[in-house]
Amino acid sequence: MRVRIILVAGGASAIAALAMGCGSGGGTSSLAHADPAADDAGTSAVADAAPDAAIADASRAIDASTKACTGKKAQPLDQTLTVMSKGTTRTAQLHVPASYDPAKPAPLVLNFHGYTSSSPEQIALTNMSAKSDREGFVVVYPDGLGSSWNAGACCGTSMSTNVDDVAFVGDLIDALEAELCVDAKRVYATGFSNGGFLSHKLACEMANRIAAIAPVAGVLAPPVCNPTRPVPVMDFHGTGDTIVPYDGSATTGFTSVPDTFAGWGARNGCAGAPGESYRKNDAHCASYAGCKAGATVTLCTIDNGGHEWPGGLPVPGLGYTTTNISATDAIWEFFRDHPMP
Hints:
By secondary structure, the chain is of the alpha/beta class. The protein is built from nine helices and eleven strands. The protein has helices at about 10-15, 50-65, 120-125, 130-135, 155-160, 165-180, 195-205, 255-265, 325-335; strands spanning about 30-35, 80-85, 90-95, 105-110, 140, 180-190, 210-215, 235-240, 270-280, 285-290, 295-300.
């Protein structure tokens, strides 16, 4: 019997625990299926500043990667996964859209929760499963050990005990590719707070497998970041965030959002200064154009925004949540336009 995860009315209070949020080489992966257990708010369109040539290259890459899969099976829509990584059993919640075709490679989005949070809470916060159903991508919500991720300078026991979450992500992708018809050129990472920090780290250390990232309320934490190729980045952050401050924090060692944005622009060889690519009231985005390999870098700033997922479920105590942009909508549009070269 398949059991779908039900998020009850108490979800908003449950994810209030996010207020505490921050801001290699894995073994053989095995994937086991446990007994299968709002419409997006705001405005969805964000202009992409990538040159026409880069868009054409992206289209060719998608065409080249749509080879039929063989030996794959239809999947339950919602299921709990277990993956063995570094001798530890890890879990994740998987959502497969009803339109999934086991013979046609599908994009995969990894969506990481914040510190002290969990995969069910990330499902509620982002409403990304509904977007998956509309757009036809697979989305997985991994669980961090101790409700945390080791993202370099954040957070919790995963960082203090040096959990190898990069290896876990690699093992998880391996396991998903073994079971599902996944398009290896369209594997993406997003996450909130500590999960956003981890998304940055994955771009630094797994650029060969992660096509693009879209962190929300998280900044770059690793002291060294030398990706093997330019990685497209779309970042969201509120200026009123008191958990991961927009201007950085000397106490925690968090870098500032502008420095993270400029750093990715430099790594991706972007030309000139960023220009505005979206504005609606308190939500506005700026993008670097002319980046190498079409690896656009975009920062969406929410004036007075709190520690929030723009357009997502408001969480009491974490500050203002805008409805003038939907991070979930904009993230998918960015991912769709930035497959692996």
